[in-house]
Write a structure and sequence with these properties.
- By secondary structure, the chain is of the alpha+beta class.
- The protein folds into 2 domains: 78 residues, no CATH class; 52 residues, no CATH class.
- The chain has 5 helices and 4 strands.
- It has a two-stranded parallel sheet with strand order 1-2.
- The longest helix is centred in the first third of the chain and has 25 residues.
- It is globular and about 50 Å long.
- 14% of the residues are buried.
Length: 131
């Protein structure tokens, strides 16, 4: 059993190294969301699945690889409403359940919730870089 866990850990680490290398080579700046994974694992009933994904280690790898190349890692605030904000008109929804996988706005914007959040994080990252 320990060998299986070690294999999975090594596969994840290898993937994170390859992905962080590719991102550091291709982009001058990378914007990410600063997440509180401990609070997410406790409060949102995700349990260990949130803590086991290695997001923190991936961010560390990405950060030092970008820094070595003179590039920038931009972290948006963890309270920035990336999922609740419409990427077209900028209106912020009061509530958005996790079960809602498609973002719908009054302005006519209908898109995948994660794509909408990614666009918002990218735009906030640009804003933070220019500020």
């Amino acid at each position: 059993m320990a060998r299986c866990h070690e294999k999975v850990r090594n596969q994840r680490k290898d993937y994170h190294h390859k992905l962080s290398f590719r991102l550091a080579e291709e982009y001058d700046a990378v914007a990410v969301e600063d997440l509180d994974l401990k609070a997410m694992s406790r409060g949102l009933n995700f349990g260990k699945s949130v803590m086991d994904n290695g997001y923190g280690n991936f961010l560390n790898m990405l950060s030092y690889k970008l820094e070595q190349r003179g590039k920038v890692l931009v972290k948006t605030d963890r309270f920035y409403p990336s999922s609740k904000k419409c990427s077209k008109c900028g209106k912020v929804k009061e509530t958005l359940a996790l079960s809602e996988r498609t973002y719908h706005c009054r302005c006519g914007n209908h898109m995948d919730r994660d794509v909408n959040a990614a666009i918002n994080i990218r735009e906030e990252g640009k804003r933070l870089l220019c500020a």
